[in-house]
Design brief:
With about 270 residues, the protein is an alpha/beta fold. The chain has helices at about 5-25, 30-35, 35-45, 70-80, 120-135, 155-165, 185-190, 195-200, 215-220, 260-270; strands spanning about 60-65, 140-145, 170-175, 180, 185, 205-210, 230-235.
């Protein structure tokens, strides 16, 4: 198993790259991308059963990034994990690039679905989990969602279907950074108590510090957990995590960093 200190360094490198990519491309959603980095690092480096050299292996675990506005986090995780050359990141969001601002299915190795319009990833995950059962393949499906995405009615339709089908190989990971585009997630709609809602829908729920790589690895790795139910991981995170002047500041949902701020972020992340 990869040492925690090595994963922490990888997470810092990814965060620095995210800030640089936002500056170079002019693409927003930096705060949302920074909040889910540790979830992706724990999943891709320690939990998922997959081979970067065989991204279409039918027996691979699937990770679906439903919060597609954080596409740069997925692209960086895949590149650093070896699915494609890191140099491809330099072409993010360029016309004709295989790394568009919001991902399309199989636009690059390891990208499972198109996302960006919120509320569809969990339904796709339900379908994939059912397909695995029908085909007698024991892969697992992990769906990374935003907390604001839980505003969408389609999320709760899927949340009703999964326990009815006893999809214990399905995990909904909520990047619970407490913000969405226009305000606090628990104020825009009455999301809280979010754990109670998922449990009421028949899911096995675990809450975890979404920036603790060991805790995330342990929580994600317990899939299935023996309950016979689909799982929800409520990952408590901080929007803009890792860069002090971006943390818990919702201006960074849309704001683009300057060249000076890119360097400031690199220094904070210990990458001078």
């Amino acid at each position: 198993m990869t040492k925690t200190c090595e994963l922490e360094k990888t997470a810092r490198e990814i965060r620095a790259r995210l800030v640089a990519l936002s500056h170079a491309s002019g693409a927003p959603h930096l705060g949302s991308s920074l909040s889910c980095v540790d979830i992706l690092v724990a999943a891709y480096w320690r939990v998922l059963h997959l081979d970067p050299q065989a991204p279409q292996d039918p027996l691979r675990d699937r990770l679906l990034l439903s919060k597609g506005h954080a596409a740069t986090s997925l692209y960086c995780a895949l590149a650093y994990r070896g699915f494609f050359p890191v140099e491809m990141l330099d072409h993010f969001a360029e016309p004709g690039s295989c790394l568009p601002e919001h991902p399309s299915a199989s636009c690059a190795p390891g990208v499972e679905i198109a996302s960006g319009s919120l509320g569809h990833g969990l339904s796709l995950g339900v379908g994939m989990a059912i397909a695995g059962r029908i085909q007698q393949q024991d892969y697992r499906v992990f769906v990374v969602m935003s907390d604001g995405e839980c505003n969408e009615g389609s999320v709760w339709e899927a949340a009703l279907m999964a326990p009815a089908q006893k999809l214990e190989n399905l995990v909904a990971i909520i990047d619970y950074n407490k913000w969405q585009a226009t305000g606090r997630s628990n104020e825009v709609l009455a999301l809280a108590p979010l754990r109670d809602k998922w449990e009421a829908f028949g899911w096995s729920v675990t809450e975890v510090d979404g920036h603790d790589l060991d805790a995330l690895s342990e929580a994600l790795g317990k899939t299935p957990d023996g309950s016979g139910k689909p799982r929800t991981i409520l990952a408590h995170t901080v929007k803009g995590k890792g860069v002090s002047f971006m943390e818990d500041d919702n201006n960074w949902h849309y704001r683009i960093p300057t060249a000076e701020e890119v360097e400031m972020a690199r220094k904070e992340l210990g990458l001078t």
